[in-house]
Structures are given as C-alpha cells and as structure tokens.
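Handout, section 4.2: multi-component inputs.
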Amino acid sequence: MPRKPNSSRQTRALLAALLDRPQTWRHGYDLSKETGLKSGTLYPVLMRLSEQGLLEARWQDPERPGLPPRHVYRLTASGLALAREQARAEAATMLGDPSGALA
Amino acid sequence: MSRRCWRRLAVSAARHAARVLPGANAPWADAMRRELDYIADDRAALRWAVGCVAASYLARLAARPRLGRRMVSAPVAAGSVLLVVGLAMQGHASDDPVPAKAACEHADAAPDVARAPVATAGVLAHPEQSQRPSAADCPRAPADIGPAPPPIR
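Output:
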C-alpha cells in the first residue's frame, strides 16, 4: 500500500514547527534548530512542500547591513490546512482514537 | 584545524552544493548558501554546508527522469523467481555420486553394512557408484578389509 504523502516524521515535524507561528516568516537555520532536522533533510522537504504549493518562500532583506538577503518560508492556506489536519490526527493518535473524532 | 579552515571548507562545500543543484532549483541553492552567513559557529556552518551538499545531490537525483515502477519491478521480480527456482533445482538436479568422505564413516563397519544404499536428499545412491577412498584418506580404516563382494543387484 502506498504511503500517504507528507506523512513522514520529518515532514510532520516541519509542518508542526511552521504551524506554531503560521504568520511568521521563518529561516532555514531557525527551522533546523527548532525541528532538529539537518539541512540535508530540511531543504528537500522544504523544496517538496513548495512544489506542492503548501509552502511559500521569499527573499527577506537583512536586518543588519553587510549580510546577504535571506530565504524565508511560511505555510500557504493549503499547507496550513494540511498541518492542522496532521496535528489533529496526531493528537487523536495520542488519545488512542485513530478516527480523529476526539480531536 | 583552525576555525578559519572550517569556515573556508563550509563555504567551498556550499558553493559546490549550489553548482550541483539543477537550474530550476537555483534559488534554493542560494538560500542554503546564504544561510551560512548567519551561522556564527564555524563547525555548525560546516555541518550545515555538508547537509546542503547532500540536499543538492538528492534534488539532482530526484530531478532525473526515472523508469516507471512497473518497468523496474517486473524484470526484478522475474529474475528473483528464476533465481529461487534455479537454486531449488540445483539441489535435486545434481547426479554427483555420494562424496568419498561419506564412505569413510563406514570404514570400520562390516562390509555389508558399509555397502548399504544411502538415501541422500530423495535420491538413492549406492556407495558402489562412488570411488572407494584409499586407506590414507581414512585414518580409522583397517589396513585391509578384504576383497569387495559382488555388487548388489
């Protein structure tokens, strides 16, 4: 049976981190520290989510002069919906209700 | 290795990652590379850059046209089945006689017992078909066990 897309532990961790502050633009290093994902894992997931239209990315001007612009990310509306759905499912699993009705 | 070396290595690795990444993903390569300037710790920067190289190669592999899963899995499945069947048949298809070493086990037994047919993996073999080992091959064998009786029909 094929695995449900975007259901890996790494993707779920990233979606949860982005869902934590959905309106804030987040940096790659910041997300890496929060989720514990190494850059080699984080960026492929970010790229995939962006390709699927679940993540938006833009360049942000540096806060201090002399530093380069930074790529920042946040969830799109569909990404937000998916992250919420996964958070609900995870909460339901922790409560021992696989149907998600309790969450 | 000095801290400056870690940083230089990290920058080189990040540049390499940017070169490896396919054209459509160039902004991502830039994103990974520029993040280095915000990582104060040189060792952490190198770890980050190594991860970027891994991410770039992964993205490059993912961008390559792949064969369909069915196209790949059919020959692999067929090959596996053939291999298993071949290995299974190998045990039964052999017409080798009973190995000479097996005869040594009966070297000090009565000749008629030693010549009893031996069943091996469903194939009835007779020691007569095999080459008789020499006394030197069988340390416990008597020096002379007399002439061999006529073969059992």
